[in-house]
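Many introductory courses stop at the sequence. We go one step further.
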Amino acid sequence: MAAERTYAAWVRTGLAALAAGIGARALLENIVPGWLAGATATVLILFSGFCFVAAVWREMIPIAPPRPETQRLPAWLLISVNGFLAIAVLAALVGIWLQ
């Protein structure tokens, strides 16, 4: 179950960074210059995209023996869920820069 916990941790961190990036843009908009708020949000959102890619990458690495008794998540499921999250990252980036 350690592999599933690692995958969940990457996805959890990515979702938190995505939410923080969107929130940073909204909260910092009238406090700091617009370019700085956008840059902060962009860095957080790009980090979330990295986390989603890293989650799939870490999950698909073969495990050295001894192999766990539980089966790994199917690759199609990992790629489809995190692909959707990557699209959400792109949509958030477009949304913060085209206001």
